[in-house]
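Blinded run. Sample ID left blank on purpose so nobody reads anything into the name before looking at the predicted structure. Input follows.
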Amino acid sequence: MSVPLPETGGSPLTPGQEGGQPRSRDSAERGRLAAVDGLRLLAAGAVAAYHYLGTPTPRFWGSDHDLAQAAPFLHAVSGYGWLGVEAFFLVSGFVICMSCWDRTPAQFAVSRIARLFPLYWAVELIIVAAGTVTVLLGQRSGAPTDLRTTLGNLTMIPSPLGLDFTDGVAWTLWVEARFYLLMGALLLIGLTYRRVIAFSFLWLLLAAIGRELHSAALNEILLSQYAGLFATGIALYLMHRFGPNLLLWLLAGFAWCYTLTVLDDRIAGHAGSSWAVGAAVLTGFLVLLALAGPGPLRHIQWRLLVYAGALTYPFYLVHQSLGIPVARGILKAAPGLGLLPAVALGLLASILMAAALNGLIDQKLATPFRRRLTAALNPNRTEPHPAHPMPADTLTDEHPMAIPGPTR
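Blinded prediction complete.
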């Protein structure tokens, strides 16, 4: 990768710098980050644990199965699994900053669309089909299946359209989309080391002002609840790319203080959760990301972690809307099996569905979809031959989310 162009008005060159900016590490240092894939899997596991074992919903698995009695320890620990939401946004700051670097706004947009939409559309249609069959069999569907709601959900932004989510977890995609728009705006200006730092500090400051003014518009645009998580991830990526320095540690520290302060708003929405415990758990995840990105764990190249990372996004899409109904069906058909075995089978079914979607949709459709999008942006150029497809992204094209709807 090339070193970012120096900005005008930069300071004189110093050792280890070019154009007043830190020298970018060798490209070998910025290869596939399998450890970050592993962290995405860990966050997905936390979210799934919250949905399956930590949910505070009374009689979630039926009147005969009380989570607090069947698995009191697992229920208590999994009750903090909603922090997987914050963990995914933290990883997203790191991954999306990586995805933006050395790309044009059009290339970034193609990367995001090709990575997210084919899998999302497939899962949406599966959920609608399953819900329709359920209704035809005289049962109640857990997801809306009417045509208007389905069409709105295919846009991936049903909430601004005043519609319910077909897939309850998809509310986080709208949060992610707004983060992508902010990064895309920065790409239009020109992405450099200094500008990313200035952008991150300014974003946090404006988000804080939005909270002080109680401005719903500013809070929606600037993602004031999650800005600190994204900014911290950005700081860690800059450390990974350029090496740690005082300014980046200041950015990470400022963003993390902001994050832990506003975390209290999320704690308030989860009865029984403690701010101190939540802050400690989330900070532990931050330490792991620091070790996996700029730290020594970046050298790990375990293929199993890479594959697990590839399954995170499809698993996120199916584990609640499709996996939980499977577990409930098993409990209904074989009540003597017990709650925990049924939960385990529901999770296994989600993993198998994720593997199938990864193989059938992501691996076979994403590359030609990306190629055709790229060709559509350059209609006067010859479309790349299938034998020489557009180079697939590594970690940068993996969606970091696996987040539950009810933890909003």
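Unblinding after everyone has recorded impressions. Strands lie at 17-18, 21-22.
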